[in-house]
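check this one:
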Amino acid sequence: MHDTMKKPRHKTPSSAKRARSASGADEGDRSDHASDRGRWSSRRKTEVVLRLFRGETLDALSRELGVTPGKLAQWRDEALAGMQAGLQSREPDHRDGFIHDLKAKVGDQAMQIELLEKKIEILEDGLRPPPRRPSL
């Protein structure tokens, strides 16, 4: 058997890493950033969503970050939902679903009443004698 020392391999930086370096992201800030294919911190997701809000396209960010456009759209939608919830004047509670169901029921009943009134009108028109012609 012969002893061979393995030479250290130098890895080439990934495109995402090069993009962070080019954008001025500090390598010491790496603890904030998950690995390119691993979990993403909420802070990093927020940065990405803000870029989407500023007008960057899903496709461009997807290519740059190595994240699917569907995942980016999901993050954007979740951020919007969170913003809407944060801007509500009161906290939602168990009654909200019940109120929603009641409003839907009232809307259905109002439509049924309107249709029945129209049907009654049509039926009553069929029972009325035709209008008289004025005599000359």
